[in-house]
Amino acid sequence: MSFIFMFMNGLSALEPVSSDISSTPRDSTRMKKQKDPDRKRTGWTFGILPSVSYDADLGFQYGALSNIYYFGDGSTYPEYLHSIYVEASYTTKRYGTFRLSYDSKYLIPKHRLTIDLAYLPDAMCDFYGFNGYTSIYNNVWRDSKHYTAEEGYKSRAFYKFKRDLFRVAADISGNIGGNWYWHGGVGMLGYLINSVDLDMLNKGKKPDKQLPYIDGLYEKYIQWDLIGENERHGGFHPYVRGGISYDSRDRQTNPTHGIYTDAFLTYTAGFNSQKFGHQADFNNLRFNFTFRHYVPIYKDYISFAYRLAAQVSAAGKSPFYMNNYWNTLYIQRVLYEGMGGGNTLRGLLRNRVLSNGFAFANIEFRFKVAKFHVKKENFYIGLNPFLDAGMVLQPYDIDENRLRETIARNDPDFDLNTLGDYFNFDRKAIYRPHLAAGIGLKAAMNDNFVLSVDWAIPFNKQDNAGWANFYVKIGYMF
Q1: Which of 120, 175, 446, 463 could disulfide-pair with 458, CB 3.0 to 4.6 Å?
Q2: How high is the pLDDT of residue 358?
Q3: What is the mean predicted confidence (pLDDT) over 222-247?
Q4: 457 with 436: CB under 8 angstroms?
């Protein structure tokens, strides 16, 4: 369920005055309609969204965001000349978003420039282990609403750790020829990682409502040497990126026909420091590939869209907390995480599938069921049923015998007979696909500002024991 309060406002550039002084007001109106039969937007327009919204992974959100567009004389509509996005919000599960981003294809002629600054605190970041179905998810361990300690409940924070993410990114692209483009970018990702701050979360709560002080899965992975000393507290990682893309889409937001595909490499380094351990061990090179196809079925009312994507490690090693960060050529959403959640596999638990390399697909039918106008603004309502699928390509190497020896040495109180509650050592489980399906509702203004509500359900309860997940976001997923 979600409650959204939306306020829209548009500022148009002044229309030039006709030099024909004999024109009547009716003539002027007719001339204006002939000049702009498609109701193109000009000048500045913006959407302001103070919201109380809901995400199954992050909880109820409160805050405000705004997307400001400049269309100039309208000759490029629905493509904008400049876009500025500002957001400050927080959720009941203590996930924060403080972000400022800028996007333009016209500030530097014939080049696209995007700049992104973000601080994303997360008091209870999801962590379900490595390799998807290799790591068994036990909903009873975290579900205090339906189970007691005697029935197996451990803690709502059992599958959590604390993560603060700082991001600075600048990306630029230019045309090579035709629909081909080159891309380059630099940035910095700063992670502060630790155990969940139970004292902070329990402050002011009655004893029967407090989270128990027990080790969660993050702490166990540290004890079992699955998470190394040099990655347990995070680190700072500058990166440089380069690649190419092909883009024949008719528009950037909800295209009705065309292809977008890209391939690029990202080199990421790690800073050495006493606090974060030997971060230089995490210099790595990743390869990313994306293919999107938009197929018109009936004018711009019905279209078919799908996306194929993969991210693999080409050289080196990355820390566990970066293996769910999905690299992109330019940043449009707050955070791209794979796999699981509203940006990759809807319906799955956020970050459910954590591995060194992964691939996923999204398939959608998009319907514009109603178009209408409010004053100077163009609106439409859309529906899109979808199917999402993903799988591990490069798993973590978890050897059962070696793991048992490590646990016996570092965690002697752990009952090794219960190891099957944590791991499925069948190699076939690693590569089993993760599937989910659902439907989305879209409310769009001027073909750019899109309020999106998606509902999705996974095919396997190992991916989410709840009946379904809801996501309220801005924009189409791809």
Answers
A1: 463
A2: 97
A3: 95
A4: yes
Can you give the pLDDT at residue 273? 56
Q: Inform me whether the pLDDT recorded for 440 exceeds 50.
A: yes
- Separation between Cα atoms, residue 140 and residue 149, nearest integer Å: 9
More confident residue, 399 or 62: 399
* DSSP result, 276-339: TB-GGGG-EEEEEEEEEEEEEEETTTEEEEEEEEEEEEEEE---GGGTTB---SS--SS--B-S
DSSP structure class, residue 95: B
- Domains, in order of start, for the chain: 3-474 (2.40.160.50)
How big is the chain, counted in residues?
Answer: 478
Integer Rg of the chain from CA: 24
Residues 6+ apart with CB under 8 A from 406: 224, 225
Query: What are the two backbone dihedrals, phi and then psi, of residue 448, each rounded to the nearest 5 degrees?
Result: -125, -50
What does the angle CA 468 – CA 475 – CA 329 come to, to the nearest 5 degrees? 110
What six digits make up the tokens of 345? 């596999």
Pick from 116, 111, 285, 239: which is nearest to 182 by CA? 111
pLDDT tens-place string over residues 239-298? 999 999 999 999 887 898 999 999 999 999 987 655 666 666 789 999 999 999 999 999
Q: Bridge-partner residues for 309, per DSSP?
A: 290, 360
